[in-house]
Model the fold of this input.
Amino acid sequence: MGFNSNNDYRYPYILNNHIVGFGDLVPTSTGGRLVMVTCSIFGTCITSLMVVTITNTLNMDNKERQAFLLLRRLASSKNMEKEGGKLISQIGVYGIRKGFISKDKKLRNLI
Done:
């Protein structure tokens, strides 16, 4: 791309900064380039406004955050109960195999 004047480098610079790109059809007049630069700036503004709106919509307020943390704690405590039950049963099986616990004793008597 040859630059004939100082103003020629500004158009591709602005388009690359606004992620519009060049494409196969490019405006050759100053007015056409001005329209494309204006459109790219407005497009960037609209995209940033959409990102801000979606982010604000998806952010949790204080009550939603508390409910989420409560659900996470409940899931964690259920998981701990399940893993604890597995551990206790493994201890009982180990004790029976090693002879620490007689087979007629119930495991619940140990707890």
